[in-house]
Amino acid sequence: MKIGSFALALVLASLFSIPVHAEDAALPETTSLYERLGGEAAITAVVDDFVGRAASDPAVNFTRQGTGKEWDATPENVATLKKHLTQFICGATGGSQVYEGRDMKTVHEGMKITESEFGAIAADLKASLTTFNVPEKEQDELIAIVATTQGSIVEAPPESVS
Ligand code: HEM
Questions:
Q1: Domain at 31-153, CATH homologous superfamily
Q2: Are the C-beta atoms of 52 and 138 separated by less than 8 Å?
Q3: Pocket test for ligand 1, best of 65, 107, 155 (most atoms within 8 A of CB)
Q4: Which of 36, 59, 91, 110 is the most buried (most CB within 10 A)?
Q5: Can you give the residue ranges of every domain in the chain?
Q6: Distance from Cα 68 to the centre of ligand 1, integer Å
Q7: What is the pTM of this model?
């Protein structure tokens, strides 16, 4: 069977493929978000920055002060959170990592997380992605995935506007 030049180009491209990073422009559409983000090493770096950012953002109140479900940010707890969040994002974007944490509803139950706190944490994630030069398209794709968890995480009624 005659191999078309397009197929040949694909074979050659795969033979000479090198690890993919978010900075690399013009990757084929079929490349998973996981790969376009730069794989596990890049996602780990983003999570590291993001958790630090969210934990110190008063608009997020990450440790849930005053909610009756305060979280103790010990080094061990933070390390486990980062490990699980990295697994979660890797798995959700197309990586083969298996998420070993609890489901989103169980974890966040009783934390009284509001829509505005959820919006604030999403903005922190976006800021971390920008810090690591992740292109807008990949940022939007990841934020859209994170947004799918909102229904399981937000439980407090919207704050009164009057
Ligand atoms: C305002 C929004 C949020 C707050 C305040 C918050 C807070 C927390 C806290 C305090 C923990 C530690 C709980 C524990 O170890 O017992 C936690 C765990 C976790 N959160 Fe969130 N979270 C928020 C949004 C999100 C979002 C948007 C995601 C994912 C898309 C997420 C993913 C996780 C994961 C994977 C864990 C680890 C679960 C485990 O270790 O079993 N969280 N979160």
A1: Globins (1.10.490.10)
A2: no
A3: 107
A4: 36
A5: 31-153
A6: 16
A7: 0.83
